[in-house]
Amino acid sequence: MIQKILIANWKMNPSSLAQAKALVTEIKKASKVFGESLVVIAPPTIYLGEVQKIIAKSKLLLGAQNVSAEKEGAQTGETSAGMLKDAKVEYIIIGHSERRAKGESDEVINRKVIAVTDLAMTAVLCIGERIRDDEGQYFEFLHGQIKSGLKKLSPKMTKSLVIAYEPIWAIGKDAKRAVRKEELHEMTIFIRKALLELYGKSLAYKIPVIYGGSVDLNNVGDFLHGGMVDGFLIGRASLDAKVFTEMVAITKSSGSPKIVKV
Length: 262
Ligand code: PEP
Known about the structure:
The chain has 262 residues and is an alpha/beta fold. It has helices spanning 17-30, 48-55, 81-86, 97-100, 106-118, 137-149, 181-199, 201-204, 220-226, 241-253; strands spanning 5-9, 38-42, 61-64, 91-94, 122-127, 161-165, 209-212, 231-234. It has a single domain, classed as TIM Barrel, CATH 3.20.20.70. Helix content is 39%, strand content 14%. The protein has an 8-stranded parallel β-barrel, surrounded by 6 helices. It is globular. The structure holds phosphoenolpyruvate.
């Protein structure tokens, strides 16, 4: 069974350190009853140190929203995987669509995945189509993102990998709707099949496949069962401690997802 994972992607929020500390403190209070689920808080880089101090010795894990592909040097404004490891980061979101939109290429994303897994941190590789065309070309597009994102990632390293399926059209406040659970189920099977081609059955079944895009209290249970995902990458809803911790509770009480046969 794959342990469920919930990752709070705070993006560039909240707007002050005081608010960030208050938010994580509230989540921490509820975390005693989180059970077996892995709950990751990914604050803005500048807040990592303070958030880490608050979550130390709790069940919460620290995440980062981005990383440099380089180890050191003339990289103004960047943060290396080694620096994030020193800051006690365990999960790193890579290739988020908001970063891809700023020009991050598949090649750079792949180098980031390797940099992170080489240091035994977990790479959360985000993939997702911008639109769903009637011809179904988005399947090929996603296949390409998986293949290029995981280039040269050895089978052994897949234990430090999470795939986050985030269809761009379903993300953020401008999204018209979240994905439907049937659509998500189809994608989960498709992603597993792509992983199976790359790593074989026994490893592919162990790589968590999570979903992100307008996840809220109303759809989280449906996605877990109907979508057969192993967890969630949560944006807006993770900025409300009550809503986020309730989502963790729903995920916990929903039991383990059935194995998706591909
Ligand atoms: C995201 O951007 O990773 C995301 C899932 O955002 P939201 O939950 O706000 O749609």
